[in-house]
Amino acid sequence: MKRLRFLLPAPLLLLSLFLFTAQTSKPMPLEQTLREYRWKNRVLLLAAPTADQADFKAQKALLAAEKAGMMARDFVVLEIFYNQLSAADQQFLTKKTGISPSQFAAVLIGKDGGVKEKSSRPVEPTTWFNVVDKMPMRREEMRKK
């Protein structure tokens, strides 16, 4: 009896292995993720019960129209869905931000890792920009450019 072999071209094999690893690997804890961005980026954390939540969708649409402004201010947007968080991540999120895991929240975290602003409603990007542009670190960044 002959064995059948399925051969994949090398790039496709590598992609398949990467996708398999990415799907089976455990996501990085939220605290560690935020630590990775510290001193590099400002984080706009968008948290919602699910991706279908209306305020979440509205906030994403508002941000999509302001990509240049977001990039100029070193923003990274993290989307968090409560139903996908571990118990430890839910506890960290509540402790760090004070938000309720049952509703939409947008939280601005500065490069220093501190919570700078939060809202339970979608916010115009210019509002976030105004908060950031008043920060001493951002003023220094603008002077250097």
Automatic annotation (TrEMBL):
Signal peptide interval: 1-21
Organism, as annotated: Hymenobacter artigasi
InterPro entries according to UniProt: DUF4174
Keywords: Signal
DUF4174 domain ranges (all copies): 34-141
Protein name: DUF4174 domain-containing protein
